[in-house]
Design brief:
about 210 residues, Rossmann fold, alpha/beta, 8-stranded mixed β-sheet, about 30% helix, binds uracil
């Protein structure tokens, strides 16, 4: 499975701000959106362009346009925290939603919501979720978008760990995964170490 850690001084600085436990929810959200925007700028380098004829005020010329629909799929709820930044860059992107929760006893992932978009079959699809921890939610979300017919799928997260990447590579080896940072490991409670705590709680100011 192709995995890219998008290292850049701006991303590293912003992620460090997010990791600090005394960072406010407002600053956490702002930095998350800014990182998501920087990451997507890099990730989208391979979107195909179509040549078109245009007229400038001076003369006819050729230009290039993105014709393929772009679909963003946030995994609820933390994935929502990456949307604003990406939408600033790609305002025409369609948004599909996938709601998942983990049964704390069986640790199984369950779907409680899923709504696709038109033409996802032909789209460039980016699933977004800040934390790739055990890999369970990522696998389930990719299962769902594949059932919807999506073919060109990428998974975009902020922090990943080797355990989650390994599981994901086993189930969906062709899906490209991008992270701002590959962290060390999972702890016994399933949190990423050193990580940044519960991303959803920090985004929404919940406990
Ligand atoms: N989900 C989070 O929000 N944080 C972790 O560390 C792991 C999973």
């Amino acid at each position: 499975m192709p995995f890219t850690e998008l290292k850049h001084p701006l991303i590293i600085d912003k992620l460090t701000r997010m990791r600090k436990q005394d960072t406010s929810s407002k600053d956490f959200r702002e930095n998350l959106n800014e990182i998501a925007q920087l990451m997507v700028y890099e990730i989208c380098r391979d979107i195909p362009l179509t040549k078109i004829e245009i007229e400038t005020p001076i003369q006819k010329t050729v230009g290039y346009t993105i014709e393929q629909p772009i679909v963003l799929v946030p995994i609820l709820r933390a994935g929502i925290g990456m949307l604003d930044g990406i939408q600033k860059l790609i305002p025409t992107a369609r948004i599909a939603h996938i709601g998942l929760y983990r049964d704390e006893e069986t640790l199984e992932i369950h779907q409680y919501f899923a709504k696709t978009t038109t033409d996802i079959e032909n789209s460039y699809t980016l699933i977004v979720d800040p934390m790739l921890a055990t890999g369970g939610s990522a696998i389930k979300a990719i299962d769902i978008v594949k059932q919807w017919g999506a073919k060109n799928i990428k998974f975009v997260c902020l922090v990943a760990v080797p355990e989650g990447l390994k599981k994901l590579a086993h189930r969906h080896p062709e899906v490209e995964v991008y992270a701002a940072c590959l962290d060390e490991k999972l702890n016994e409670k399933g949190y990423i170490v050193p990580g940044l705590g519960d991303a959803g709680d920090r985004i929404f100011g919940t406990k």
